[in-house]
Amino acid sequence: MTMTPEAPRPYFTRRITYRIPLIGRMAREVVEGDEDTPFYAIAMLVGLWGSAFMIFGYPGLIIPALILVLAMFLTLIRITLG
Fold first, then answer.
1. Where does the sequence pass through the membrane (predicted)?
2. Domain limits for position 21
3. DSSP per residue over the chain, as a string?
4. Any domain includes 60
C-alpha cells in the first residue's frame, strides 16, 4: 500500500484572490496558465493605462502611477519583514 502525500494548500492570499469573480479568474490564468499569459496581462494593463490617459487626461496618467507607488512601497515592506 502506498501513501501519497497531500498536495500543499495554496497561500491564503491566493485563495482570497481566486474567489473574486473577474480578477480571480485572470490571476489564476496568469499564475497557472500558459507561459505567454503574463505577457498578455502586462500588455492589457499598459493598454488600460493608455486608454485611461486618453479618456480622462492627465489624472488618468497620474492616479494609476500613485497607486503603483503604494503597491511598490507595500512590496518593499513585505520583503523587509521577510
1. 62-81
2. 12-81
3. ---PPPPPPPPHHHHHHHTSHHHHHHHHHHHHS-TTHHHHHHHHHHHHHHHHHHHH-HHHHHHHHHHHHHHHHHHHHHHHH-
4. yes
